[in-house]
Amino acid sequence: MTGTADERGGGYGTGASGEGCPRAHGIPDPPAPEEAGDPYAGYAAAREGPAVRAVPAGAAGRVDHLVTGYAEARAALADPRLSKDTTTFFAGKDSRRRLHPAVSASMLATDPPRHTRLRRLVTGAFTTGAVRELRPYITRVTHGLLDGWPAGRTVDFVAGPAEPLPVIVVCELLGVPEADRPAVRRWSADLFAAGAPDAVDAASHAVADYMADLVAARRLAPGHSLLDRLIAARDAEGRLTEEELVSLAVLLLITGHETATHALGNALLALLRHPVELRRLRAHPEALPAALDELLRFDSAVGTATFRYALRDLTLGGTEIPAGSPVLVALGAANRDPARFPDPDLLDPARDASGHLAFGHGIHRCAGAPLAVAELEIALRAVLERHPGIRLAVPAGRLEWRRTRLVRGLVALPVRV
Question: Less Cβ around it within 10 Å: N or C end of the chain?
Answer without folding.
Answer: C
